Amino acid sequence: MPRTVALRWEGNPSAYGGRRSRTSFTYQAFVPDPIARLAVNLPGEIALLVSLAESEIRALNSGAATAGLEAVGPLLLRAESVASSRIEGLELSQRSLARALFDPAAARGTARAVAGNVRAMDAAIRIGAEDRPFLVSDITDIHRTLLSGFDDDIAGRIRTGQNWIGGRLNSPLDAAFVPPPPEEVRPLLGDLVSFINRHDLPAVVQAAIAHGQFETIHPFADGNGRVGRCLIHVVLRRRGLAPRFVPPVSVVLATNAKAYVRGLTEFRQGDVAAWCGSFAYSCRSAATESQRLAARIAELQAEWRRRAGPPRRGAAAGRIIELLVSQPILSVATAHDAIGGSAEAVRLALNALEQKRVVRKITAGRYARAWAADELFDTLNEFEHDLATPTRTDQRRRRAPA
Questions:
Q1: 55-64, 164-173, 229-238, 388-397: which range is least confident on average?
Q2: Is 46 within the bounds of a domain?
Q3: 379, 296 in Cβ contact below 8 A?
């Protein structure tokens, strides 16, 4: 059974916030059960949700039903990173993220933080694709990638002090949840890694439980939510369910943050099945909409080619149209690096595509002239809106598992 540990908080007489903030008090830190050997038994309805989610993720990765699916990978990663950051209160548009990735040196504040989330998600996918046991050091590497250059003092470092969720900034007084004390963290992470290395559970169930347990442990001073959602990518990639594309589950989770937090709370209270059902529904929705996004992207590229006119085989304009999906903001230099040829041919092609309303010339960074694919950003906004606006039937389904 999970347990709580009574701990003493020593008050600070000079603390801000009134008498309660300055007094000492006892608080309870939550210590979850180990999960390395957890037996998972799901009711039939939840097992069906899990099966349907895994079928949709396989369909997304097969590409059999959707043309141009290869173009979707970078877009799904960006959508996932933006939504995962939004859950933590970091609001950023896809267009602003693209600018930050185009010119990292000029990125500041939220843009820099979300760009770090993109890199962390990418690192999680690479780690998940490696044929070896998953390690605690992989978790700290993902965290280091997330916060590198943004909060280097804590990047990649497991916490040595107590943290908490909600309530006050300067003490766990009135906290909504207090994770395990620091001496419990490393053993629990070792146990979590053992669970992630299992192969006897459905991948979606394993990803749901691994994420829930990580968020309960909360092993870092900051960035736990984003790293925990990176672990979803690790598990689905490691288990071979998503060898090419991991659906942006965070886009769905972000649409109802209260339900997401409620699901994690129920998980900590022992209702593993309800959390797995809610998580599976989110995976299924994300995978289904991702296939639709792929179809929209293919249609958009076809429209761009129509506007540009039939390009010669291997011509710069046609290759730039292919490139825009993964790099929706381009300069002559970045396009030239990606497609080769001559810089002059690339420049002429970008100018021609601007005249045909495929791209729009912008100023990106301090001095660089660049071109942006505005219609692609509009398509991504529609994708996120569709996931955030369930039908009445979807609303009923989303409430049931939670």
A1: 388-397
A2: yes
A3: yes
Q: Which long-range contacts (CB under 8 A, 24 or more apart) does 314-318 make?
A: 315/349, 316/341, 316/345, 316/346, 316/348, 316/349, 317/349, 317/352, 317/353
Q: Which two tokens stand for residue 305?
A: 């080619």
Could you give the 3-state DSSP secondary structure of residue 372?
A: strand
Q: Please report where in the chains the tokens 């960006």 appear, as a residue.
A: 78
| Structural domain for 270, as ranges | 34-163+181-292
**Contact between 338 and 350 (Cβ < 8 Å):** no
Alpha-carbon distance 282 to 387, whole Å?
10
Stretch 366-392: mean pLDDT:
79
| 28 pLDDT higher than 50 | yes
Q: What is the mean pLDDT of residues 97-101?
A: 88
Q: How many CA atoms lie within 13 A of 158 on its CB side?
A: 19
Q: How far, rounded to the nearest angstrom, does the alpha carbon of residue 282 sit from its chain's CA centroid?
A: 13
Mean pLDDT of 119-131: 95
| Count of other CB atoms within 10 angstroms of residue 354 | 13
Q: What is the CATH number of the domain that holds 209?
A: 1.10.3290.10
Phi (first) and psi of residue 310, to 5 degrees = -65, 110
User: Is 200 within the bounds of a domain?
Assistant: yes
Q: Which helix (H) or strand (E) holds 9?
A: strand 3-9
Number of compact structural domains in the chain: 1
Tokens 């965070």 belong to 250
Under a CB-based contact definition with an 8 Å cutoff, are residues 188 and 32 in contact?
yes
At residue 21, the 3 state secondary structure works out as: helix
- By three-state DSSP, how is residue 10 classified? coil
Inside any domain, residue 358: no
- Tell me the residue type at 245: F
Give the C-alpha separation, 44 to 181, whole Å: 37
Using 50, 70 and 90 to split pLDDT, how confident is the model at 86? Answer: confident
Q: How many beta carbons lie within 10 A of that of residue 251, not counting itself?
A: 25
Structure token digits, residue 195: 């669970």
In a domain, 82, yes or no: yes
Cα dist. 252→35, 79, 280, 387 in Å? 26, 10, 11, 6
- Is it the case that residue 341 has pLDDT exceeding 50? yes
How many residues in the chain?
A: 402
Does residue 198 sit in helix, strand or coil? coil
